Amino acid sequence: MRGLLEVVKAEYVFVYGDVLRRKSALVSFLAYPYMLSAFILIVGYGVGGLNAFTEKTGVDPVLFYVSGSYIMLSVMAVSDDLMWRPDFDHWMGTLPYVLLSPVSRAYRYIAIPLPRLTLVVLLGATSVMPVFTVLEGLGGILAGLIVVLIGVLASLSFIPVSMLVMGLLYRSTGENWRVLNIVRPLLMILIGVYYPRQMMPWIGRLVTYLLPPSNSVEAAQRFLATLQLDTYSWLLIGLTVALSIVYLPVGIKGLVAWEGRLRLTGVRTE
């Protein structure tokens, strides 16, 4: 446990040294949910009006898109930091040192997304909570907190998926960044933040049930309709946790195997 805490501390120093140095990037990150929601709502208002969305879905469009933007950015913040780290280490020329490090591989890959996860909580506190409080009153504080927690769960549940994708991708191709730029948007679509899986073809819908964050997203969307967590929503949350537990050891094993292969073949740095 002490080893894990040391790795987590190192990741926090590394990430927040960059975050605090580039304060404009932090401000932009916190403003993204508002900007994305405003853009979608303006376009939607021009096409059919906000009332049309409420009539067809039963959900306030402002709450829906602010929550959706928050969850999407939360998942992206955590998953991108994890999936791009091997390429980052390779480009910086530090990958050989990482491979020679005595640090537990499981500890390292679990620690990488945790600093961004803290930013996810801050993002929810500055976007979801204020909007829910303004639109729903004091009762919106609890509702907003539930959405924030579901967003955190979605982010955490995407860590094993990211590890699994990394293990498969980095072992099978050399142009990792090209493939990542294709896989990443596909995963964002399948998560179902802006395109609910109920509207997907049955094959796509089946795939989404295998993605832990997609189940959390549906639970959040159902919650927005009634501001209550029904039995099915709890079932989706349980499925999210169960799939994450299943994927985690598989993802770590794949990454360890990839690193073992690099130790045998060597790392080419440029």
From TrEMBL:
<feature type="transmembrane region" description="Helical">
    <location>
        <begin position="232"/>
        <end position="258"/>
    </location>
</feature>
<protein>
    <submittedName>
        <fullName>ABC-2 type transporter</fullName>
    </submittedName>
</protein>
<keyword id="KW-0812">Transmembrane</keyword>
<feature type="transmembrane region" description="Helical">
    <location>
        <begin position="29"/>
        <end position="50"/>
    </location>
</feature>
<feature type="transmembrane region" description="Helical">
    <location>
        <begin position="117"/>
        <end position="135"/>
    </location>
</feature>
<keyword id="KW-0472">Membrane</keyword>
<keyword id="KW-1133">Transmembrane helix</keyword>
<feature type="transmembrane region" description="Helical">
    <location>
        <begin position="62"/>
        <end position="79"/>
    </location>
</feature>
<feature type="transmembrane region" description="Helical">
    <location>
        <begin position="141"/>
        <end position="170"/>
    </location>
</feature>
<feature type="transmembrane region" description="Helical">
    <location>
        <begin position="177"/>
        <end position="195"/>
    </location>
</feature>
